[in-house]
Design brief:
Length: 338
């Protein structure tokens, strides 16, 4: 498959596959014993099918049941997991030994635990970022990637979305940026991510909860082409919001622990050189992870196809994104089976 760009049709859209339940759920102990990291993971679909590892966004977001429904359960063996500190994994909201490379290591431990030789990877936003990180670290274990809303944790991507005065997302959502910045004194607004990180890792519990809600609400409010109040309500759950905001800011202020800014796109030739195919689904009007990163990744990774959804933002629950992700998993299955 040569690199290509196509625009999705707005007609005859697919819906999610019917709901199906996991046939196995469990916890895997990872990392240093004294930290007691327990990673939740589950298996669903066809145990004899094509294995695929689903990575959630955030980081810190946790997997959702409907993620299974992007897959034909008769074709795919769907493995999902909650990353350190997120979802059902414990300790909750932990930042200890919680980095990109610990997560990549955990993914590899799950593969070994399940005795899988090679698998496909599926993820959006941070889920795309960690999938790319794993694939570039363990290319011989990858059958192919289906990615959505490309995020590579470059400083320019972070400042576009989170930094007031950057000339980025505040030009589209000035109302939401104002609410995000309102929690931070004017003297600290030159680095909003660090200011939030200090509060989310501080000792003032009331301030921590307030900042977690504000941070999470900002992302939920800007994720869809049409703002969804139901989507924003997720940020009202304090347990979710604190883990989501703490872990995100932890990763962002540390640059994801990449060797250098721009590593994932610059080193995408690893995917190319190992003949790994990819399908990238990208909302044209994605304000959380603007299309430039997907475009640059596609140019560097010649075995990828970029599918632009012309009437979508960032969320994987928008109709056009749902349709193209379901098509992409079907197409990737056909590519892998060749």
């Amino acid at each position: 498959m040569a690199s290509m760009i196509t625009t999705a049709s707005v007609n005859n859209r697919r819906e999610l596959y019917p709901e199906f339940k996991p046939y196995f759920t469990g916890f895997l102990s990872v990392g240093r014993p004294e930290l007691n990291h327990q990673i939740y993971y589950e298996c669903s679909g066809n145990p004899e099918g094509i294995p695929v590892l689903v990575s959630h966004g955030g980081p810190g977001g946790g997997v959702q049941d409907y993620y299974r429904q992007y897959f034909d359960k008769d074709i795919w063996h769907v493995i999902m997991f909650d990353q350190r500190g997120a979802g059902k994994s414990t300790p909750w909201a932990s930042l200890d030994d919680n980095t990109t490379w610990h997560t990549v290591s955990d993914m590899e431990e799950i593969r070994k635990k399940l005795n899988i030789e090679k698998w496909a990877l599926f993820g959006g936003s941070w889920g795309a970022c960690i999938s790319l990180s794993y694939a570039q670290t363990h290319p011989t274990r990858c059958l192919g990637l289906v990615l959505r809303g490309i995020f590579t944790l470059r400083r320019s991507e972070l400042e576009w979305f989170y930094q007031k005065g950057s000339g980025g997302n505040e030009n589209i959502f000035p109302d939401q940026m104002e609410l995000l910045a309102a929690e931070i004194p004017l003297a600290e607004q030159g680095d909003i991510m660090n200011a939030y990180y200090r509060r989310l890792t501080g000792t003032n519990e009331e301030e921590k909860v307030r900042c977690a809600h504000a941070w999470s609400k900002y992302e939920m409010a800007t994720s869809k082409l049409f703002v969804s109040q139901d989507y924003i309500k997720r940020a009202e759950d304090s347990k979710f919001a604190i883990a989501f905001a703490r872990i995100e800011t932890h990763y962002f202020v540390h640059g994801g622990w990449f060797r250098y800014d721009g590593q994932l796109i610059n080193e995408a030739d690893i995917l190319q050189n190992n003949d790994i195919p990819g399908i990238i689904v990208q909302g044209r009007y994605d304000c959380v992870c603007p299309m430039k990163s997907a475009f640059e990744l596609n140019k560097k990774w010649q075995k990828s196809k970029l599918v632009i959804v012309p009437d979508a933002g960032h969320s994987c629950k928008e109709p056009g994104i749902i349709s193209e992700l379901c098509k992409a998993t079907d197409e990737m299955a056909a590519i892998i089976k060749k």
